[in-house]
Structures are given as structure tokens and as C-alpha cells.
Amino acid sequence: MARRTGRRPGNPDTREAILAAARAAFAERGFDAASIRSIAAAAGVDPALVHHYFGTKEELFRATVAIPVDPAQLVPAVLAGDPDRVGERLVRTFLTVWDSPVGGAAVALLRSAVSSEWTARLLREFLATQVLRRVLDQLDVDPAQLPLRGALVATQVAGLAMMRYVIRLEPVASADPETLVATIGPTVQRYLTGDLT
Amino acid sequence: MARRTGRRPGNPDTREAILAAARAAFAERGFDAASIRSIAAAAGVDPALVHHYFGTKEELFRATVAIPVDPAQLVPAVLAGDPDRVGERLVRTFLTVWDSPVGGAAVALLRSAVSSEWTARLLREFLATQVLRRVLDQLDVDPAQLPLRGALVATQVAGLAMMRYVIRLEPVASADPETLVATIGPTVQRYLTGDLT
């Protein structure tokens, strides 16, 4: 967020054109294959303007999904410390973000992804490339299992968000965060590094 | 389903009035507190007509959420057999229903619950009273922990549904059901009967 305050908001129409082109590119081709250059071309602007308005490709992606937190800043704290408690720290970090004032944006994204195939694709790409990959790349596990491990983590974390913030099923809806860290953390840990079968 | 074929469909307006009254009652007061008598009164019909059109209170509830399977018929198979594998059988049963032609209704309900507070309340009540309670009542665990255990199961199972059928995150989206049973079953088992902290 610190870098954005120093960036000029720019022409609203140009910003919106870039965002629309970026949404289409990330949803259709995925984060890795979409380039700033092709997004700029689709929006009819110079690539330098895309960087000027939105910063890096990662930052542009976050702008398209309106997520106000930067996984690149949160993931190092999740990975630091006892490797057997990465699961707990991941759940704690998710709950800290969602329970905070900016958490509404994450819940809104989840709601939107359920009703829109377009947003679902963006959320899928965001989860896979910006959150799960960053965590999994640092773990000492069989690379062939990484996609399944990441998707299993996503099932548990998304389900926690659904039941706590959207469906509001008690007692998960109003449970103390540490209760959820203690009960759900070991699940995430097993999906990340444990014996899967 | 078998019983419904023998039941007259009745006047569409009357059926709809009963369903609307039942939805309001189940969402506002919950399954246990809502009575057939009060639902009939709200719809302006005789309670006998509610039974005639919809059968038991459980069957009326299923009609309000448009769920074509009867948890009362599925739960006994989940509970039968090795008590240490209830989690696996629960995940297998869910996947069998969702992967079947009637699974679309369950996914539609999940989608609808995300956008409608009304449907969210109905789904919450349905999960708690028709699915989770039936399973948990038969397990040998501390009754004080039952609500948390049930809600934890719901986080994992709803998240699996979200990622497999709505967001379609690979490889969970197209994974063989038995892969998911083997990997997610132990999570559900721990939430049901394991050490939670």
C-alpha cells in the first residue's frame, strides 16, 4: 500500500481500460502467460503507463481482484519459524486479514467468485500463483504433489471463510481466532507437508 | 422420493404459499422451533394439507431448500462400519451425491446461499439439523464439543464443494473421488472424533 500513495491515480478512463484488459488477460490466459505488454496493447496504452499506474504485474493483478493486502508481504511471516506450525500460522494470518477492516474485500471477492465465472477464474489464478505457490515453493515436499497440496489447503481455507463470514455457521462464526488456529491449523499443516494418504 | 410420487401435487398456488411460509419459518425461527401448525396458519391452510402435500416436517424442509436427497437415508450408511473411517465415508457420500445428476441442486443451493442471507440461514439450519446432528448424535464424543465438531466438518466439506464445483481449482476439480476421500477423509474424521487441540 505504501508505494501506491506515491503513484498518481491518473485518468480514470485509462485506469479502467487497463484494469479491464488486465482482468480479461489474467482470467483467460492466467497470471504467468499474461504480459504487461499485451495488457497495455489491449488497453491501447504504452506499457510504461501500466507500470506508472499500477506498479508490478503482481500489483496490477491485486488491483484487478481488489485485494488490499499483498501476499508477498504476508507469506514470509507464515514461513518463518517452526516448519511444523506453518499450518497454524497460515490460518492465523488468514483470520487476521479477514477479521480486519479490509477483510470485507476478501469476503466480497469470495461472494463474487461464486456468482461469476470470470471472477472465479481470477480468484483461482490469484490463489494458485500469489498465495499457494509462494508458500509451497518454500516447503520441502515432493514437487509432483504441490498442486494437490495447494488445492487441498484452498478447500479448507475457503470453507473456513464461507462458514465464518458468509453462511455464519456457529460456533465457527464467532469463535476466538486461536480456537480455529488450534483446530484447523493441523489440517492445513497435513495438507502442506504431511502424509496425504 | 418414493413417497412423493404417491402424493398429489395439489394446487400450485397453495403449494407455493406453504413453501413460502415454511421458508420464512425455518429461516427465522430455525427447524426445531418452526411447527407445521404455525406454517399452515401463516399459509392460511389446514395443517393436514401441509402433510398431504409435503409429508413430514423434514420433507417439507427439504422441499424449501430444493435438495433432492434425503440425509436420513444417507446417514446410516455413513455411520455403519469402522468408526475410524466415518470421515472417509462422509466425504465419499458427499462426492457421490454431488457428482451425480442431482448434485447440481446442491451446488445451486451453495451458490444461492452466498448471495442471499435468507438462503444462507436455510442452508445453515439444514446442515446443522438434518446432516451434522444426525451424524454427531451417533458418535461417542463429549456432547459439549458437538457444535464445534459439526461446524468444523462443515468448513471442510463446504470448502471442498466450493473448490471442486464452483471455483473449479485443479487438481481438486477433476480429481478421482477416492483421492479426495483418502486425503480429506482423515480431516473430517479428526473433526468428528479426534483430539481437537
From TrEMBL, chains A, B:
SUPFAM superfamilies reported for this sequence: Homeodomain-like, Tetracyclin repressor-like, C-terminal domain
Start-end of DNA-binding region: 35-54
InterPro entries: Homeodomain-like_sf, HTH-type_TetR-like_transc_reg, HTH_TetR, Tet_transcr_reg_TetR-rel_C_sf, TetR_C_16
Start and end residues of each HTH tetR-type domain: 12-72
Gene3D superfamilies given in the database record: Homeodomain-like (1.10.10.60), Tetracycline Repressor, domain 2 (1.10.357.10)
Keywords: DNA-binding
Top-level taxonomic group: Bacteria
UniProt xrefs under Pfam families: TetR_C_16 (PF17920), TetR_N (PF00440)
Database matches in PANTHER family: HTH-TYPE TRANSCRIPTIONAL REGULATOR RUTR, TRANSCRIPTIONAL REGULATORY PROTEIN
Name by which UniProt lists this protein: TetR family transcriptional regulator
Organism this protein belongs to: Micromonospora halotolerans
